[in-house]
Design goal:
Arc Repressor Mutant, subunit A, 9 helices, about 300 residues, alpha/beta, Metallo-beta-lactamase, Chain A, 2 domains, 5-stranded mixed sheet
């Protein structure tokens, strides 16, 4: 079974995009959006956290999306970009609670006299705004629609701009694929959220990490869906040889992957196994040994 598996082809591999570490610190991506790259590159954060400034041309107010980690260098670049736009920050929007996106939200809100808006009160704070699917955040000259995209984690949101661009946080990355952060992540919810973003017909995807995706963003989403199916088929193939511990499944499914990413790979694998357990495909015992149910062996 394993020999017949073919990995889906990532459509981004054929595109001319900046190499790892080559994204500019500040970029005007479109009339509505400026990206400021935080100086926190890593295996998980890729080039660093993408902080976005949303402001209509000539408008006097802006929203910051995902301020990222606190730090004077990053704040100075964002503040300089706001000054260049002639806009003050009215909102700080956060896609989800992970610290590489949310840590600076409340401190920056205090410094900029802005309001934090997020999908959890933990991030928004006592004076912030709790966002839900279908909400709209208004700015002078434009507005931002909120799309709930749980899966990577429970409180994950995407933000759709009037230009047709969708800011997708960690739901879809500019390089590679996202981690389902089990146990707070949920693969079934994640797949449904991918389909929701696909159905929006986005003109571009701006991720929380890595380059923007303008060329056929729907194909990238379709690749993400296919890649999750491929990983599940790899797990099934491994289990057809008999029960395996979760660490052994990770070793087989992610063979050839940088071992420094195995922690993240295990989280996504556990999320996939939980989906399979919920669907009646596999069983997991108290020792984390996984076996196929009899009907899957037939």
């Amino acid at each position: 079974m394993g020999a017949s598996l073919a990995a889906p082809v990532d459509p981004r591999l054929t595109l001319a995009v900046p190499g790892f570490g080559e994204l500019p610190r500040v970029s005007q991506l479109e009339d509505l959006v400026t990206r400021v790259l935080a100086p926190n590159p890593s295996l998980m954060a890729l080039d660093g956290t993408n902080t976005y400034i949303i402001s209509a041309p000539g408008a006097a107010e802006a929203a910051i999306v995902d301020p990222g980690p606190p730090g004077s260098e990053h704040f100075a670049r964002v503040e300089s970009a706001l000054t260049s736009l002639g806009a003050r920050c009215r909102w700080i929007l956060v896609t989800h609670h992970h610290i590489d996106h949310a840590e600076a939200a409340l401190p920056w809100a205090a410094r900029l006299n802005a309001t934090v808006a997020a999908g959890s009160l933990m991030v928004a704070g006592p004076d912030g705004r709790l966002l839900a699917d279908g909400d709209r955040v208004e700015l002078t000259g434009t507005g931002i629609d909120v799309v709930a995209t749980p899966g990577h984690c429970r409180d994950h949101l995407a933000f759709r701009l009037e230009s047709g661009t969708v800011l997708v946080g960690d739901h879809i990355l500019g390089r590679g694929t996202s981690v389902i952060t089990y146990p707070e992540g949920d693969l079934l919810a994640y797949l449904e959220s991918l389909r929701r973003v696909h159905d929006l017909g986005p003109d571009a995807l701006y991720p929380g990490h890595g380059p923007e995706m303008r060329d056929d963003p729907s194909a990238v989403i379709e690749y993400y869906l296919a890649q999750r199916e491929f990983r599940e088929q790899q797990i099934l193939a491994a289990l057809h040889g008999g029960p395996l511990g979760i660490s052994a499944i990770v070793e087989q499914v992610y063979a050839g992957t940088d071992r420094r990413l195995f922690g993240a790979a295990e989280q996504s694998t556990r999320a996939a196994l939980e989906k399979m357990r919920a669907e009646g495909t596999a069983a997991i015992d108290r020792n984390d040994v996984v076996s196929l149910l009899e009907r899957e062996r037939a």
